[in-house]
Amino acid sequence: xxxxxxxxxxxxxxxxxxxxxxxxxxxxxxxxTTHSSQLQESRLLRIGSxxxxxxxxxxxLGHVVGLVIPDSWTDAVGxxxxxxxxMAVSTGAVAGVAAAVGIGILVYRRCKVPAVRKATLxxxxxxxxxxxxxxxxxxxxxVLNSSGAVDYNYREGISVWFRSLFTLQPDYRLMGAAPxxxxxxxxxxFALFALxxxxxxxxxxxxxxxxxxxxxxxxxxxxPEQLANRRPKPGWERAS
Length: 240
Hints:
Blueprint: H1 2-27, H2 43-68, H3 71-76, H4 81-112, H5 114-118, H6 122-147, H7 158-165, H8 180-195, H9 210-213, H10 224-229
Helix pairs in contact: 1-8, 2-4, 4-6, 6-8
């Protein structure tokens, strides 16, 4: 079971992610969208969406730092384990709570606003379930670890296992000593990766970053008299 969960499942999830995105880009290009429901309701969306997206951005950044950067690197720059864990818990808790509150508002909006509820797809139900499960399990694991309820250093276990995945030699035995909350959090996380190509989360890989670098759009007003004297083009005659 350890071999299947921690030696096979990560590669299967990433394979589904890459293959699913390639398939969708080839056969469902026009369906690759967030299915925005802003026209149905915007008040709750303006609150929940920024909380969720900015919170998740910092949560993902914290996961990258905690899983990818070895503890020997932080020790080399003079960051002690106590300082590292204090920073990780404080910033991670704020980001996690913000993301959880944001997704809670979005789920409430989707359930309570009739127009938004009608626009909800079946894949959304699965995606929200897995996403909420991963987030809540992550918060539970953080609380248990920071409160001392479980004595476990994930940087010596989960982080080492995660980095071994990139060498194609997963040390799956390290996950045997991990607490159950951490294991379930990882399972839900990889399940979410596998679901991305088949849900609205695919828009993660099509963020409009080019808008940041595009030139300004200049709007110029026109003299109404000039427009009145201009000969209309065929098919665009003004109604009398």
